[in-house]
Design a protein that fits this description.
single chain; about 425 residues; alpha+beta; three-stranded antiparallel beta sheet; about 40% helix; about 20% strand; RNA-binding
RNA sequence: GGUGAGGUGGGUGAGUGGCUGAAACCACCGGUUUGCUAAACCGGCGUACUUGGAAACAGGUACCGCGGGUUCGAAUCCCGCCCUCACCGCCA
């Protein structure tokens, strides 16, 4: 959520930014400013009345203690009058606040200046292309769902039986490969200075609101209505909320956290080839890295995160490219996002496996995550996160790219984790 | 699921209607003293909104789990809700 003050003082910048996103309801900016003016005026009127009431109440107390009953009674009448007005103003103020808030949460984050304009993923900028050859995984490309069946690593039908489509079952070496990747990613993140956490997999609505899943995007989460909890769509939600309602010291930065969790996404409305096999599922594993940074250092942190993800993919020997998302493809809460895509040779297509974003103060404003600077002033911190990495699709790419027609080779770096070097 | 206790500032914890935005202690920050550390002493130390100001700062308002009520006046009294803890039951 953007700060009202920021919107008022940077109206043109906000409107331009929304334009880069292709955001249609530009009028909302004016509406918000108007609503805030109303809120402020109401607030100030109310405060004046309350001040008068407080003053009068004190006098009444004194008059009573001095035994001046009559004078006190007179003042009481005056306060009773004020009371009626206060009640009305209070209602008006609450309405104005709610009204403003409701408009405010509809406004997405302002894109970073480097974000290219555009409407769809076709307009994303290739930030770093893949220079080498793209493997086709032998046998003119075998998709991972066939390999999974052939080597008894994955069973999608079983998942359907137990739960429904989009809930794959990993078996044998497939399960071990999954677990090995999780360990590898966590170990690498720890080495890079991220503190490992195991967060809850369900969150309350305050947390879902804090990272921007609520309001509006509740349809993407599994909702346990009986207990008013949500299954997390990403570890970003519980981990970022560790610092909800917090005031940090400047010296606390940088804060680097990582965590492995399963992720649950309803993915309502998905269909077609995009959702075959592991390409898009309702439950998948992911290691997430999350950072809380001083505003001046957040973009350096973002670069550092890119390097971290790159090193993972390099070591897994996976061909990848990095995209800078265009305005239209940018997530609601993000100011700048880089997507990582790996080449899945069996399908002959790129699969998104990581999304690394700087949210600047957008999440922090909702989270009320602040820090005190050297002058003792409180400011909003910057939050960032990235997948490092999303598991299921990595498995898909590894299987497809490393299949030579006979066996599937395990990258060297994973072998200490898997305990085997080929799947045959 | 049952029973009981409780939610006050970073922490412990006082406070049962006006002098309480809130004692005291601890932690923290600044200073004095000091060979270093420690101790002692002095001072400071919540958040949000808002008015004025370039700023420093000054004023106003709100906040003692949340919402409502009683009252001229509520941390304090009343009602509803939420949460936490303890014990029992069940249980990986």
């Amino acid at each position: 959520m953007l700060q009202v003050n920021f919107i008022e003082n940077n109206k043109d910048l906000v409107i331009n930014g929304l334009g880069v996103r292709g955001f249609k309801e530009i009028d909302l900016v004016e509406t918000i400013i108007k609503k805030d003016t109303l809120r402020r005026n109401t607030q100030s009127e109310l405060d004046k009345l309350l001040a008068e009431r407080n003053q009068a109440s004190k006098v009444i107390g004194k008059l009573f203690s001095e035994g001046k009953r009559e004078e006190a009674e007179q003042m009481k009448n005056r306060v009773t009058e004020i009371k009626a007005a206060v009640e009305k103003l209070n209602e008006a103020l609450n309405a104005a606040k709610q009204d403003l808030q409701q408009a405010l949460v509809q406004l997405p984050n302002i894109p970073h200046p480097s974000v290219p304009p555009g409407n769809t993923d076709a307009d994303n900028e290739v930030f770093k292309a893949w220079e080498g050859e793209l493997p086709n995984g032998g046998e003119a490309g075998t998709p991972h769902w066939e390999l999974g069946k052939k080597f008894n690593l994955l069973d999608f039908d079983l998942g359907v039986k137990i739960t429904g489509s989009g809930f794959p079952v990993f078996l044998g070496k497939g399960a071990k490969l999954e677990r090995s990747l999780i360990s590898f990613f966590l170990d690498e993140a720890t080495k890079a200075g991220y503190l490992e956490v195991v967060p809850p997999l369900m969150v309350n609505s305050a947390s879902a609101y804090g990272t921007g899943q609520l309001p509006d995007k509740e349809g993407q989460m599994y909702h346990i209505t009986e207990d008013e909890l949500y299954l997390i769509p990403t570890a970003e939600v519980p981990i970022t909320n560790i610092y909800r309602d917090t005031i940090l010291k400047e010296s606390d930065f940088p804060i680097k956290l990582c965590g492995y969790t399963p992720c649950f996404r309803r993915e309502a409305g998905s269909y077609g080839k995009d959702v075959r096999g592991l390409n898009r599922v309702h439950q998948f594993d992911k290691v997430e890295i999350v950072r809380f940074e001083h505003p001046e250092k957040s973009y350096a942190a973002l670069e550092d995160m890119l390097l971290h993800v790159e090193s993972l993919l390099d070591r897994l020997e996976l061909p990848y490219r990095i995209l800078r998302l265009c305005g239209g493809d940018l997530g609601f809460t993000s100011a700048l996002t880089f997507d990582f895509e790996v080449w899945a040779g069996g399908q002959g297509r790129w699969l998104e496996v990581s999304s690394v974003s700087n949210f600047e103060t957008f999440q922090a404003n909702r989270l009320k995550l602040r820090y005190k600077d050297a002058n003792g002033k409180t400011n909003l911190a910057h939050t960032l996160n990235g997948s490092a990495l999303a598991l299921a699709r990595i498995v898909a790419a590894l299987l497809e790219n490393n299949f030579d027609g006979q066996v599937i080779r395990i990258p060297e770096v994973l072998q200490p984790y898997t305990g085997f070097d080929v799947i045959e």
